[in-house]
Amino acid sequence: MTSVDNGLLVLADDLSGAAESAVTLGPPVPILLTRADPLDHSNRRSTEYCCTPDVAVDLDCRYLSPTEAMTRTASAITDLRSGRTVFIKVDSLLRGNIRAHLRASLSSTDGPVIFSPALPQLNRTVVDGVPLNDGIPLAATSAWSIEGAAAPAHLSDLCPERPGHITLESLRSSGRNTLASLAGSRLIIADAATMDDLRRIIDLARDSGAVLVGSAALARAFADRRSVHQLASPGPGSSGAGAEPTRVLFVLGTAARRVNDQIAHLSAHADVQVVDLRASQVLSWRSDRAALSRTADDVRSQLARGDVIVRLTSDGAAVDPRPLPGLLAELTAQVLRDSETVRLAAAGGETARAVLDRLDIMSLTVRKEIHPGAVLSAVDSAAVSGVVTRPGGHGDEDSLTLIHAALAEHLDNYSTSTVGTMKENQ
């Protein structure tokens, strides 16, 4: 292609989405963690990352109000675009503040905005503007059964203004002249059923300066269009031979059933201690801080002897889950307060983000994809020397075993990130 690659700005509504998009892009990619005020330190951000081709941002806004989500998105575009192609990563099942992201894209840029949320790897496609899940219209599936609203029947249902439409036929036959027939529309929805379709959309965006809004498959397509794809390889650093062992701490903020099998698999391959915490017990810490401190002392004591898994469990009682990530983050901070540096794995997007916020970690640098959804990153922290993030229930039974093995290696051994199989954050 003839257009210049000035890099990609990835804006995601949660941490795992930012990580799984960033890891496809090749060289180490920084992930910035947006705080409550997206304009804080804007001058530092724009200068510090002006020479980094690709940058990802966790906007942490999936469950914010539409107004707050729009403000964060628009501020990040203005602050960090600097000639990069803008890609807003959204859920391929179309949950979250998508209308707000589209509105922010239109208000903070002058060119087209192309909305194409297809994820071919999971057979989530868009045909005639209709989002399909395994060939069934999304609105006719149970994917939104707990959302408290009906799934969109058409992509235009999520658009803040009447969009133009690129059909599959037009995308595949008109090539890079596709946008010419839509000159009167800035907001454009695009059908896509394959990765080749998404690569064609990348070509359109690169030629026109369009903002892209869609699933992490668009980041993969962007990487595919690059002439050089670097894979993880040993860097110039130490092999780790003879180094002092660093403990691994897992914080699993999910009670998903498959985690039981994952812990059993890890326990069969490594010496780890498991600390089970009932959700109702964790919630009691809001009024019983002494109990939280006692639990932190116990976990710290076990961590001094070996690797530890802190697991959230359900005792069948109905609980409000919203405070749990913050309480687990406070526990983690207290455990690490008087501990040696550890390597950390956090499962559950909200839990991972809460832990990083509590440890005052402002950014990550993606290093390696361990398996789809699980991403190893480097951080600048005295308490933590490496972090793996993973959506709560993701992975096969060997997920934690693979994560443990990756964290047990020296992070410096990875000079670039793995361009591996990508899977959507659920």
Write a structural description.
33% of the residues lie in helices and 22% in strands. The chain is built from 13 helices and 18 strands. The protein has helices at 15-22, 42-48, 66-80, 98-108, 168-174, 195-208, 217-224, 258-269, 279-284, 289-305, 324-337, 349-358, 399-408, and strands at residues 8-12, 29-33, 55-58, 85-89, 113-116, 124-127, 130-133, 136-137, 164-166, 187-190, 211-214, 247-252, 272-278, 307-313, 342-347, 363-371, 374-379, 384-390. α5 links the parallel β9 and β10. α6 crosses α7 (217-224). The radius of gyration is 22 Å and the shape is elongated. The model is unreliable at 41-46, 227-243 and 414-426 (pLDDT under 50).
Total strand segments: 18
* Termini Cα gap: 33 Å
Task: Find the structural class using helix and strand composition.
Answer: alpha/beta
Shape: elongated
Mean pLDDT: 85
CATH topology of the largest domain: Rossmann fold
How big a fraction of the residues is strand? 15-25%
CATH class of the largest domain: Alpha Beta
The helical percent reads: 25-40%
Largest sheet: 15 strands, mixed
Strands side by side in the biggest sheet: 9-10-5-11-4-1-3-2-16-17-18-15-12-14-13
CA gyration radius, whole angstroms: 22 Å
Number of helices: 13
Question: Regions with pLDDT < 50 over 5+ consecutive residues?
Answer: 41-46, 227-243, 414-426
* Tally of discrete structural domains: 2
CATH homologous superfamily name of the largest domain? Answer: Putative sugar-binding, N-terminal domain
What would CATH call the architecture of the largest domain?
Answer: 3-Layer(aba) Sandwich
